[in-house]
Amino acid sequence: MWDLGPSDPRLVGPYRTRAVLGEGGMGRVLLATTTDGRLAAVKLVRGAFAADDDSFRQRLHREALAARRVDSPHTARVIGADATAGVPWLAYEFHHGPTLGQALQAAGPLDTDTVLHLAAGLATALRDIHAHNFIHRDLSASNVLLTDDGPIVIDFGIARPTGLPDDTTDTRIATVTQTGMIIGNPGFMSPEQAMGATQLTPASDIFALGTVLVLAATGHNPFQGATSEQTRLNIMTKEPDLDRVPPRLRHIVEPCLTRDPTQRPDAPTLLTTLGPPPHPHHPWPDPIAQLTETQQAEIRRYTQPAPTKILPGPRDLNPTKIFTRWRGSAAVQRDAPVAVESIVEPAADVSIRRPRLDRRATSLLALALACVAALVVAVPWAIGGDDATPDGSPEAADTFSARIEHSYGTTVIKTRPKRVATWGWGATEAAIALGTFPVGVAGKGSGRGLMPWVADAYRAKGVGLPVVFDPDSAAGKVPYEQIFSTAPDLILAPYSGLSREQYDKLSAVAPVVARPDSVDMWEGVVAVTAAALGLEGRGREILADADAYLSALGKQHELTGLTFAAIVHNRLEREVTVFSETSPPVRVLERLGMKLAGSVADLAPTGGDVMYDLDYEDLDKLDCDIVVVYSNSREMADRDLANKDLKALPAFAAGRIAQVADADGWDALASPTVLSIRSPAGMAKLARSLAQATPK
């Protein structure tokens, strides 16, 4: 990573460039931030590819759109592109972590279990890429990132089926590069690619995968020559050097490196051969973790985050979490509208506040802003029973009408909604709990589909899965066309951070419930959704049910009266983030009958924020019966447990530790809903961990 040069653009589309990440075969790659501070890798396509070539630009545009469909936990998605720009560009999700090449330089060859972990992730990525009739064409040590969530394949050369329909069984692939131009790292090409074949198949990627795995296991390219041309010649004419490959890996890589592409295994076959990894959450060696920390420090330097005061209120940065600021008093009514002052949100700071953990981790820290600090909770239930009309008269009970007040005014719903679309945190789960299954919903914050408990609810009901709205990662963009395509008669977006312009545009199609004023997120999202659907009584029952469930869990595991502190560990800053009494994790833990430790309030700075940072030097003052540590992956959880500095926490040193240690648990418990708390990753799992940590 190095400074931008004089010729490097400072703005590329909606992205503000910050530094140079590197250069590849197709162009220069820049570190950039979106308007809400999210990181992106923006590739500027070299002029040799695009100069005076309209057909290239047309293919690039068409194929970039298609590439967004690739949905894999082990690839960096294409999140934006402009083929018509003077310099065409592509934007990818940014993932923290060194490349495999950098990791091997720092740590040397990887042990066998780690290589198997790497192989499973890369084979999964290729399976998902090939399933959409794409090939990577440049899988190499420099295009694999080793992240806390496992290996991530980046920068796949955009490709598409040659004039074939999507359901074709023909695997011929045409690339966006010029005819006859050989693109790719010479050391990782397949024989057919090295010979300049224009019609490659997915088997070419499998050959590259075999080379990558041999390099990872031995530190040596199996076709290495004195020059790149000699290496290329070796690939075309010689057998691979596998003498140093461990026996447990040889039967994996040898079939991949077969010269005949028709004899190589495909990615699903390779995954079957690999079988379950010996350690599903296998951590990378310490030198690799240190590289990640160094990279994050560099990113912080280039993004130059300005100090920001965390205001006591929600803010929305993605469609499934709460980050929006409220003002005014709570109100959901069925009587005359009340004038509500419009709120103009300031533009989000393009810098990241603190690149702790990873983007999933950052979303939890920001989510802590979801509760209003020092707020007396007022749940805005409308007066009147279910299906009641504004005057509450039985004669009018068949006439549906509801008025929902929110930050942009009053929404009048004149007919009972039948096709509901949801956008924002919590509304989907609230609607499902009330018996309404939306036709379109926001996906996970990662953009990788439905929350597991949401998908399970649809399957249990026997109804078709909803359209999953896939927003552009450039912040704040609403997928209007996708939402409109579901023909909604109501759009529920109470905790979504809609701007006034977005609200107005959506309202032209259907009534929209925007963010309410100053309501508690846990109860408020159910209250607002129930009011919009005319099911207030049922909403109250759902919340009472949830409280009873949590209370029973606490009694079952004998948690009543135990004191706790809930934290997230920030290694780079040598501190922990402590959740205060109004934060979502604390509010749910208290429903188990537990008590927030007095030390949490004693150490909190003045100002009423919902979280605060505590330096390592003060950890000994955070006294409690149990410390709950939130980590967004097994790797990070293991690293937290092994951290010696955290032993300054009395409960940590005594082994009284409960953990949230995976992505599903993170999503379920950092932003709890009436569905997520009952999911397999929800409160029952955490309650067991709490019980195991109980002082004996």
UniProtKB/TrEMBL annotation:
A molecular function GO annotation: ATP binding
Keywords assigned: ATP-binding, Kinase, Membrane, Nucleotide-binding, Serine/threonine-protein kinase, Transferase, Transmembrane, Transmembrane helix
Bilayer-spanning residue ranges: 363-383
InterPro entries linked: ABC_transptr_periplasmic_BD, Kinase-like_dom_sf, Prot_kinase_dom, Protein_kinase_ATP_BS, Tyr_kinase_AS
Residues that bind ATP: K43
Annotated source species: Micromonospora citrea
UniProt domain Protein kinase: residue ranges: 15-285
Name this polypeptide is given: Serine/threonine protein kinase
Any matching Pfam family: Pkinase
